[in-house]
Amino acid sequence: MTGKKLVVAKWDASSTGPSIFPSRLALASLLLLAACSHPDTGPPVRAPATPLDPETAGTIEGRAIYLGTPPSAAEIEFAGDPACTAAHPAKADAGDVLVRDGRVENAFVYIERGLEGRVFERPKEPSRIDQRGCLYAPRVTGAETGQSIEFLNSDPTLHNVHTQPERSSGTNFGMAVQDARRSIHIDEPEVMVRVRCDVHPWMRAYVGVLDHPYFTVTGKDGAFRLGNVPAGEYTVAVWHERFGKRDTRVVVRAQQTTSAEFRFGG
Fold first, then answer.
1. What is the pLDDT of residues 101-113, one digit of tens each?
2. Tally of domains within the chain
3. Among 221, 238, 239, 256, which Cα is nearest to 102's?
4. Which structural domain, as residue segments, surrounds residue 165?
C-alpha cells in the first residue's frame, strides 16, 4: 500500500500565490482571537469519589499488534515557516503509523464500558501537549473530563490551538510567544478529540477524554497496562488514527492480571 502525502505549498516572500505561512492579516486575526478568548472558568464539580479497595482490584495488560505489512506513514514537507524548516530540513513521517516488528505504537487503549455508576477523583496534575519542532508532542494522549490540558509553545513561531470536540465546546486560540502556556479543559467524554494548528496544517494531535482514569497509550513495544481496576466485567477498546477501533470483553478479578490483545491488519 502506498502512503499518504501531505502536500504543503512552499512559501516565497515574492510570490502572490497560495501559502501556508500566515499573512499579516491572518496573524492579526489569530492574535486578536487569542486576546478575545474567554478565560477558563473551571471544570464542573464532581460528586464524591466511589471508594475503591486496592485489595479488590486487578490489572489489565496486553499488546496492540499489526498483522502483515502496515501502510506507509503520511509524509510531511515542512515548508513555509523558517522555524519549521530549521527544525526539519528534510521531509519526515507524520507519526501516524508507528509499527515495529508488528507492534503498534500510539494506540489509545481505554475501558469503554463497565465503570458506569463509579466516580473517580479528578487528577490535579495537567495533561500536557507541547508544540515543538512544528509538531504536537505527544501526538496521541488522554485526559479526564474537567482535567486541565496544558499547551506549551516551545517554538519561536506562531501556533494556534484549535480543538474540535463533537460533544463539547471547542477552543481556538493563538500562541505567538515562545514558552507561552495555556490550559483548557473538556467537559464531556469523547474518543478522540482532534487538535490542529491552522497555521501549520500538518500539525495534528488526538486527545482521548474519559470520565475515569483507565486509559493509556501503547509504547514502542505495543504494550499497555491498566492498573488498580475494580473487579468486574468490562469492554476494553483501542483506537488508532489510521487503523480504526477494536474492542474486547474482559473479566477482572481481585489481585489478578487479565490479558487482552488487539489485532489490526491481517
1. 999 999 999 999 9
2. 1
3. 221
4. 5-265
